[in-house]
Amino acid sequence: MSFLLFYQIINRELFRSLQAIHGKNYQAFMLRKLIPVAGNVREDDMGIEAKLAEEISEEIDVVVNSAANTTFDERYDVALDINTIGPLRLMRFAKTFKRLKVFLQVSTAYVNGKRQGRVLEKPFCTGDTIVKELFSHELSADSTMPLLDIEAEIDLAFRKKSSPDDSQLVQQLKDLGLKRAKTYGWQDTYVFTKAMAEMVINSMRGGIPVVTIRPSVIESTWKEPFPGWMEGNRMMDPVVLYYGKGQLNGFLADPNGVLDVVPADMVVNATLAAMAKHGSTNEPGMHIYHIASSMVNPLVFEELARLIHKHFTSFPCMDSKGRPIRVPKMKLFDDMNEFSSHLHGDALQRLSSHEKLRNICSKLVDQAKYLANIYEPYTFYSGRFDNTNTRKLMMEMSEEERREFGFDVGGIDWEDYISNVHIPGLRKHVMKGRGMCVNSSQLVGARV
């Protein structure tokens, strides 16, 4: 297991600062700090064998659950098993721990579903629905609201899964998840199953202090361990990369809407601060923290589009022949039909007699439409996440702690972050330098 740990975790670029500090003693240092245990949230006791599970129950005092399937339109049975039943299994396991001080669940700010305006940091109780919250006052006396029964949802999904072999089963389970989510007022299967997880944890916690961290869209690091680090494409990144490569010059988004973004290291710092506070006070309760920017430092889509264009104008990607790719200003569309027409019109201009190029172009159009459809609830989202609890948490820290473990999203300069940190980090860590611009040394050397 230590071999696996070394190559999958501690040898990653993320830890290069620690590697520089400890040099040849780095591996030994990390192995003194970390004990890897293979587990599976889809099994009772995380699939850990009994003797080791007993040892863990004697020693562990903090549990952090960040395991999740984040695919917006995942199969309903899979999303439920990982995102809802997984935390249930983990809480059941954690309740056997002799020294447990705090259970911390990493959720998402978008569990708030289709709530509008100022969205407060408040917990969910079993059976809560966004539909009931938003529309109950509009119902007549003989009308009824759909009631959320989590056990019934699980039964529904798994009965569908066990139905006779059907070539369309996977798509049907995906459609089922989206349908059930929207029935109760959530955007998609991911946030719906995460919201149900919060309900389950709240109902099971008893006297255990529970912290729920709700970050918005997590993007590349702001400062620590170094600016711009990330792995994989996050929410806005496929659009940014398609645009930079000249494959997409517009997207479906409210120009005056807000993309709620928060750097990954701020989420980590807030998590550590909440863990330290509630692990030491040992006060039972459900403590919610929004790690989000839309209330205190909103990033407007129109401004984001300007910053992306500015970056790729200054530091263009290169085509296969080493020529800079010139990008037009990004167009934002507030209507799906207009965006679809734009995509097809743009595709017609690119069409080639070469069949392979036609196929590539067609796939790009399909991918852009898929992204627009799946992201539409977020690119037109009118909720703004209040972070009063998070700001109070930060103010309770000493000045030195705030300096070392800061998470003040209000202090982010978005132009600097997007232009000099995030996009350069995306190009370095995700694109791995492919299609790097002529001034690549200037691009990489500034902050990333």
TrEMBL record:
A Pfam entry, by short name: NAD_binding_4
GO biological process: long-chain fatty-acyl-CoA metabolic process; suberin biosynthetic process
InterPro entries: FAR, FAR_C, FAR_NAD-bd, NAD(P)-bd_dom_sf
Superkingdom of this protein's organism: Eukaryota
Record-annotated Fatty acyl-CoA reductase C-terminal domain positions: 359-432
Alphabetically ordered keywords of this record: Lipid biosynthesis, Lipid metabolism, NADP, Oxidoreductase
Domain Thioester reductase (TE): 26-271
Leading EC class: oxidoreductase
E.C. numbers: 1.2.1.84
Reaction catalysis annotation: a long-chain fatty acyl-CoA + 2 NADPH + 2 H(+) = a long-chain primary fatty alcohol + 2 NADP(+) + CoA
UniProt GO MF annotations: alcohol-forming long-chain fatty acyl-CoA reductase activity; alcohol-forming very long-chain fatty acyl-CoA reductase activity
Role this protein plays: Catalyzes the reduction of fatty acyl-CoA to fatty alcohols.
Family: Belongs to the fatty acyl-CoA reductase family.
Protein name (database record): Fatty acyl-CoA reductase
